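Need residues for this backbone.
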């Protein structure tokens, strides 16, 4: 119960940071001053970390299997990733979108979390390989989600430039080149994590000696991974940039969400550790 309460507090912190970012974004000053929101984000992230630890202690395992748990963990990874790389890649404006997204994910997590009396029945046990598999996959998800936001900003900025509307608040959006490069760097980080997650799933099934690796969920995951592999190949080998490769990311995001929904609703022996009838 303590874990869920702390998650609520973290969500409130992300909401406060979201409001602060929006006020700063629309203020009549240049450049974007993110420091006011960033301090709140670090505080909310610390509380979020404590919430996951407390929830794990209450469950007796890592909170990483059921959809409410993966939502809480994925939002934590996403915010940690944003706080780590935003200043380095000079895309601070991403905080104005990442913090509301984290807020919504925690609200969804809290709204769908099972009652404490149901936890022992509904939550399967986890092991080290399972924790590593889910952690790697969710890190890939977090990077891909941030990259999708960046791709959306790219198309919006291109639209504004075409119509010569880059004035006022729109001047705070990074250049197309910076957005394109930051998006690629996020994909370059998320793709290996996703591949490692898929490999660990296969290793776990083989180590258990029973169960099935191939399922609708894993097939969707492989297709999603292939789309991002095409993106990286197009950037590195084909020299693609801008509109064409960012369109690939929008397609990839559709499959990404389909894969995540599949993890929650489709039975999988990768996660259960047993044959699924």
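Answer:
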């Amino acid at each position: 119960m303590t874990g869920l309460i702390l998650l609520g507090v973290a969500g409130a912190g992300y909401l406060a940071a979201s409001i602060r970012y929006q006020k700063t974004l629309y203020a009549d000053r240049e450049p974007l001053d993110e420091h006011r929101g960033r301090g709140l984000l670090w505080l909310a992230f610390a509380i979020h970390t404590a919430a996951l630890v407390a929830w794990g202690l209450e469950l007796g395992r890592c909170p990483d299997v059921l959809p409410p748990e993966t939502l809480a963990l994925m939002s934590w990874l996403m915010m940690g990733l944003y706080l780590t790389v935003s200043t380095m890649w000079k895309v601070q404006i991403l905080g104005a979108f990442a913090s509301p997204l984290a807020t919504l994910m925690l609200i969804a997590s809290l709204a769908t979390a099972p009652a404490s009396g149901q936890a022992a029945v509904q939550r399967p046990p986890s092991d080290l390989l399972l924790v590593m598999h889910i952690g790697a996959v969710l890190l890939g998800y977090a990077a891909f989600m941030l990259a999708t936001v960046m791709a959306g900003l790219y198309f919006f900025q291109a639209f504004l430039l075409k119509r010569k509307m880059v004035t006022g608040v729109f001047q705070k959006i990074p250049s197309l080149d910076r957005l394109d490069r930051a998006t690629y760097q996020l994909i370059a980080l998320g793709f290996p994590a996703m591949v490692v997650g898929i490999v660990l799933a296969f290793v776990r099934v083989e180590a258990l000696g029973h169960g099935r690796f191939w399922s609708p969920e894993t097939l969707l995951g492989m297709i999603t991974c292939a789309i991002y592999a095409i993106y990286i190949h197009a950037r590195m080998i084909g020299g693609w940039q801008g509109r064409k490769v960012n369109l690939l990311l929008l397609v990839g995001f559709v499959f990404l969400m389909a894969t995540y929904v599949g993890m929650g609703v489709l039975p999988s022996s990768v996660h259960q550790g047993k044959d699924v009838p």
